[in-house]
């Protein structure tokens, strides 16, 4: 994965449910999530994360990724609580800088569920300090 080359540790999840299960035992510093997830879209996943009782989940920085027209999905993504929206193909340098800025960290873990990266690999996830 491209983010690993930038020092991130990457954990993957095959679904939003699996991502939520991973979040039960990991405390991420940020979330990277595709809006076009199957079954549960990225906005719904973020809302599920934000409704958890722990304060950490309400404040987790979140970056949305989409292949859709960003002008159409940006209002929904921002309303769901995403701070940033990246349109595919993703600029890795821009994404890395955004993650570092949001987390104020250069070494990250990335939890993925089904989404799409700059390389066309499907992913979504959460970023945390190693």
TrEMBL record:
Pfam families per the UniProt record, alphabetical: Response_reg
UniProt-listed SMART domains: REC
Modified residues (4-aspartylphosphate): 34
Domain Response regulatory positions: 1-103
Keyword entries, A-Z: Phosphoprotein
Organism domain of life: Bacteria
Keyword Phosphoprotein set for record: yes
Protein name per Swiss-Prot or TrEMBL: Response regulator
Organism annotation: Trichocoleus desertorum GB2-A4
């Amino acid at each position: 994965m491209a983010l690993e080359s930038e020092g991130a540790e990457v954990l993957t999840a095959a679904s939003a449910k699996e991502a939520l299960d991973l979040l039960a035992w990991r405390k991420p510093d940020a979330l990277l999530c595709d809006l076009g997830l199957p079954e549960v879209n990225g906005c719904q996943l973020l809302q599920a994360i934000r409704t958890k009782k722990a304060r950490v989940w309400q404040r987790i920085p979140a970056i949305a990724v989409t292949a859709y027209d960003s002008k159409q999905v940006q209002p929904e993504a921002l309303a769901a609580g995403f701070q940033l929206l990246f349109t595919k193909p993703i600029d890795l340098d821009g994404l890395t800088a955004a993650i570092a800025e949001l987390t104020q960290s250069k070494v990250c873990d990335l939890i993925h569920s089904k989404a799409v990266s700059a390389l066309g690999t499907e992913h979504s996830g959460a970023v945390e300090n190693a």
